[in-house]
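C-alpha cells for chain A. Residues wanted.
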C-alpha cells in the first residue's frame, strides 16, 4: 500500500497500477531520500562510565567470554535501538574479558578497532602476532584477519570496540568464519610489527599489500608523548586544540581504510569554537574532564565516558582540566568518495 502526501488523488494509480508491479512514484519520496543536508535517526548521546560499569562487570556473572564468543555490551544509539549501531555507519561496544578467559579466534570482513578503556595486560592476537594492551592503546584488527583475545593479567579488562558493521551490511559484503581452535598459533614475537613498521622505518623491500596499517598497536605512551611535545609550541587549533590522526605508515592515509581514528588534547580552560562535519563521531574520554555542547544537548564528561556526535550536528568542547579525547568516524570513506565536508563556526 503506497500512501500519498503529494497527490492523494493518484492513490488508485499508485496502488492498482504501480504497486503490483513493484514500482513506486519517486515524486512522493524524492525530498526524503535526496535531502538538502544530513538528517538521520542518529542522536547525540553519552554513556557515563560510572553509570554503566557495574552492568558491564555483571556480564561476567551471567555469561562466559567463550559462550558469548565476544562478551560485549553494544553502545546503541537511542535513535536506532535494536540495530546494533552507534552511528548510521558504525558499530561500537564495550568488551569485557576477565582474568584467564579467552575470546576464541575467528575472522570476518568487518574491520575492528580496540581502544583500551580499563585494565592492562590482556592481549589481542592478529594473524599470529600478539600485542599486550594498555589503557589508551589503539589496536587494529584488519578485515579478514584471524583474531582472538585473552586475559593473562589479574584484572578485568574493558575496551571499546569500533567496527564498520553497518557499512559492510549496507554493502552486503559480509563473510565470517570461526577458527578450528580457540587460539590461532603464534607465528611472530610480540612487538614484531611495531619494530618493523612503527618507528618511521620500513624493511627496505617492503611492498604494500593491504590498505590497513601494518602497525596494529599504537601505544598510548607514544601518542601522549607526541601531544605533550606539541603543546610546547602552543599552536592550538581553535576548534580541535591539538588533534592528531592515526596514519598508516605505508601510505600516509588513515590507519584503517573504513574508520578514521584521532587523538586530541584540550588544555585546561580551552573553549573550542563551534564545528561540524559530515562524519558522525564517537568519542572516548581518556583523561580529564569537561563538557561538550552537541546540538541541543550539553554533556558533562570525564575519563572513560563515551559520547556520540551525529553527522552535521554542531559540536563545541570545553575542558575544565587538561583533557585527552580519542575519537573515530567513517571520515576516510567519505573522503575517498569526495563526500566529506566540514564547517567551522565562531569561537
Ligand atoms: O572482537 O571480534 O564488539 O567480531 C563485535 C564483533 C567485537 C571481535 C565486537 C566482533 C568483535
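Reply:
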Amino acid at each position: 500500500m503506497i500512501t500519498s502526501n503529494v497527490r492523494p488523488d493518484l492513490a488508485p494509480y499508485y496502488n492498482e497500477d504501480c504497486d503490483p508491479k513493484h514500482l513506486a512514484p519517486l515524486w512522493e519520496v524524492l525530498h526524503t531520500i535526496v535531502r538538502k543536508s544530513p538528517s538521520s535517526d542518529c542522536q547525540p548521546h553519552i554513556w557515563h562510565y560510572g553509570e554503566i560499569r557495574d552492568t558491564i562487570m555483571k556480564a561476567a556473572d551471567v555469561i562466559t567470554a567463550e559462550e558469548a564468543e565476544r562478551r560485549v555490551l553494544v553502545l546503541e544509539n537511542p535513535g536506532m535501538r535494536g540495530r546494533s549501531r552507534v552511528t548510521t555507519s558504525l558499530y561500537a561496544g564495550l568488551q569485557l574479558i576477565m582474568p584467564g578467559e579467552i575470546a576464541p579466534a575467528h575472522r570476518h570482513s568487518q574491520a575492528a578497532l580496540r581502544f583500551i578503556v580499563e585494565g592492562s595486560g590482556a592481549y589481542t592476537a592478529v594473524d599470529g602476532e600478539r600485542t599486550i594492551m594498555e589503557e589508551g592503546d589503539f589496536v587494529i584488527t584488519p578485515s579478514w584477519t584471524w583474531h582472538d583475545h585473552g586475559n593473562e593479567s589479574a584484572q578485568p579488562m574493558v575496551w571499546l570496540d569500533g567496527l564498520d558493521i553497518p557499512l559492510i551490511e549496507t554493502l552486503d559484503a559480509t563473510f565470517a568464519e570461526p577458527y578450528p581452535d580457540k587460539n590461532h598459533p603464534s607465528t611472530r614475537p610480540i612487538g614484531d610489527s611495531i619494530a618493523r613498521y612503527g618507528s618511521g622505518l620500513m624493511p627496505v623491500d617492503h611492498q604494500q599489500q593491504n590498505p590497513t596499517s601494518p602497525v596494529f598497536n599504537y601505544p598510548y605512551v607514544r601518542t601522549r608523548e607526541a601531544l605533550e611535545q606539541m603543546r610546547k609550541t602552543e599552536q592550538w587549533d581553535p576548534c580541535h586544540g591539538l588533534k592528531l590522526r592515526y596514519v598508516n605508515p605505508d601510505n600516509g592515509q588513515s590507519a584503517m581504510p573504513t574508520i578514521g581514528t584521532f587523538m586530541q588534547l584540550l588544555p585546561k580552560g580551552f573553549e573550542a569554537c563551534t564545528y561540524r562535519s559530515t562524519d558522525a563521531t564517537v568519542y572516548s574520554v581518556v583523561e580529564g574532564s569537561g563538557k561538550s555542547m552537541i546540538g541541543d544537548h550539553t554533556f558533562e564528561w570525564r575519563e572513560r565516558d563515551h559520547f556520540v556526535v551525529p553527522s552535521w550536528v554542531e559540536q563545541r568542547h570545553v575542558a575544565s582540566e587538561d583533557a585527552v579525547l580519542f575519537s573515530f568516524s567513517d571520515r576516510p570513506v567519505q573522503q575517498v568518495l569526495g563526500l566529506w565536508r566540514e564547517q567551522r563556526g565562531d569561537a
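The radius of gyration is 22 Å. Helices lie at 11-18, 30-33, 49-62, 65-68, 165-171, 192-197, 220-231, 331-336.
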